Amino acid sequence: MYHSYQKFKQLHTFCQLTALLCCVSIVSSCSKFLDAKPISEVPAENMWQNQRDVKAGVSEIYASFRDAMRANFFEWGELRSDNYVLTTEAASDRGKLIANQMTNDMACTNWSSLYKVISNTNFAIKHIPQATLANTAEKNDYLAQAYAMRALCYFYALRVWGDVPVYLEPVDNLENGVFKPRTPMRQVLEDVIMPDLKRAEQLVDPASLERKRISRAGIYAIQADVSMWLEDYDSADKIIDKVRTMPSFTGFQPSMEVMKRTFVTDLNNKTSDNDRLRDEYGPGFNELIFVIHFDLRESVSYSLTYNLFGAGVLLSPKLTNIFSTAANTTPRDIRFDNFLRAGTTAGTYRMNKYVTNGSSISFNALSECEMAYPVYRFTDLVLMQAEAKARLDKFQDALSLISTTVRARAGVSATTRTANSFVSREDLIDYILDERQLELVGEGKRWFDLVRTKRVVKVMKPINGLSQERQALFPISYIHINQNPNIIQNPGY
For residue 209, how far is the Cα from the chain centroid? Predict the structure, then answer.
């Protein structure tokens, strides 16, 4: 095991060097990365040989994804939205995100960590079929995870930067590396991401239950989300119905108290994620579909969660007013009590979804306090499906879906608006998006919702002056622009 893992780590270090030197940019070629040969390399065929090798390789996919999303989970999907304001006016990358003062030297504009994950998936996709594993279902499941994770990483890249380079083959020698131009966003959605997800759907083992790995429900969740971006609302609606009817998936958690525990305590002191056939959360209804697992402290001396939600940002006045109004109306919306805590200044609030109610985040938080960032959970799909039904002019179906699930758990089902109270389809969609903002605050969704529904200028211009749809894209790091002559910067940067 140790020898196989060491071989993998050497190869992975080589891949990291490749990614650093060339940004691992990826569907037609131009110039070579470097003329020089690498100092050393481990042939991939000597790595991907048996079950231990494959398990180590797929584990590295998830480890590199975790690294890529540690801060970007919030910085890509959350901080540019109307959810937060800074606690001070001190200059910082997060301050620039919130103020819409994006520059191409910010860490969140660098895609190397994401393409590192993609590089790892490409090696897995190429070599797992030739590996020797006694269990065919397990072998196919590992391959399914590689396809699904590649699709998810490209999906993140598209939502952040628009058109992106595409690599579908591993780069195992620097001389084989090529600089690629950007491929149009819709082409990547239709010709890369969806085919990868379909392939993953065919290969995944239905018996796989772990939520820190891609399961069939996770594959369907990504498919539905991609369908929403493709404006294929009928497909999104039908895909989410597949999740609802899965015999092994328990779905919506009706108890707010139980759901809160899934964010803050359910992973405490649980064994590591080595068994794909065991649900580490245990039996029963469980919201979560695919999560990124973090210790609260995350490292010896630095807590991102503390830095961001314990000291860095407050809920925006707009969202504070929405939450406060809901909390002071009869019946009371109990999301206010479970998702927020009071700030140091009267009338201000911090996002508190990942911390036990009544407690505060400590900079020196115990390392055994664990949590899960939900990449997808079932309520996300419920609200996604409600929007799909609204766009298909099924107003009552959309409202009934929200009323009997999300708003029922929040204690406000009785106050759900009636279908005839909406003057247009867009009016209903705004209502659903408002519900998504309340329910999914702190989950890396709001910015992407504004971009996908083309509401980013309408919502953000009064807040930070964002005045053009093109500003919805992040700038591409100057590092990539300097390294790759085929990469053209996004307009306006």
Answer: 19
Residues 323 and 437: their CA atoms lie apart, in Å, by 10
Q: Looking at residue 491, what is its pLDDT?
A: 93
- Reported pTM: 0.90
241 versus 343: the higher-pLDDT residue is 241
Helices vs strands, H then E, count in the chain: 20, 6
Under DSSP, the state recorded for 294 is: E
- One-character DSSP codes across 153-203: HHHHHHHHHSSB----S---SGGG-B---PBPHHHHIIIIIHHHHHHHHHH
Of the candidates 491, 492, 490, which has an alpha carbon nearest to the alpha carbon of residue 161? Answer: 490
DSSP helix/strand/coil, 452: helix
Alpha carbon separation from 300 to 263, 269, 271, 292, 363 (Å, rounded):
22, 18, 21, 19, 11
Crossing angle for the helix pair 51-77 and 136-161, nearest 10 degrees?
A: 20
pLDDT tens for each residue of 386-418: 999 999 999 999 999 999 999 999 999 999 999
Tell me how long the chain is.
493
- Model confidence pLDDT, tens digit, residues 438-461: 999 999 999 999 999 999 999 999
Q: What is the pLDDT of residues 276-303, one digit of tens each?
A: 777 777 766 678 999 988 765 544 445 6
Within a 10 A sphere around the Cβ of 91, how many other Cβ atoms?
11
**CA 193/CA 159 separation, integer angstroms:** 13
CA angle, 373 as apex, 55 and 71 as ends, to 5°?
95
Cα 141 from Cα 427, distance rounded (Å): 42
> Does residue 176 surpass a pLDDT of 70?
no
What does the alpha-carbon distance between residue 240 and residue 387 come to, in Å, rounded to a whole number? Answer: 12
Does a cis peptide bond (omega within 30 degrees of 0) precede residue 475?
Answer: no
